[in-house]
Amino acid sequence: MPWIGATLLGALVPAAIVSVVLAWQESAALLLPALSFAFIITLGHTLILGLPVALFYRAKRWHRPELAVATGFLIGVVPVGVLGWRIPVWPGYLLILVLFGGLGASGALAFWLTLRRAGVLDGAPASSE
């Protein structure tokens, strides 16, 4: 169960960030539709890219948070980088990569914290609740 919760939270956190920013910039009425759409995208990233990496890290017993965040950053950057590989490097494009990397890092941190709190990671104290 902790892995399912961690996967869902890992997808929900970046989707919520995108939705709140969009609703703040455009209209509060966009919050729910944006959250739904963003969650579908982030859940796909989480399942296709993030979960296999997390399972690999689990098998290797690599449980450091900075590794999870750095990998999450790459998982956020790679799809955007692949889609825009023909775009000349310009500051706006680099900013987009950093923003998507930050979203990936936030999802990875939520994933890691959920597993840590549940006591799934080696040496992690189990939740007392």
From TrEMBL:
Q: Which UniProt keywords are listed?
A: Membrane, Transmembrane, Transmembrane helix
Give me the segments passing through the membrane: 33-55, 67-87, 93-115
Q: State the protein's name.
A: Uncharacterized protein
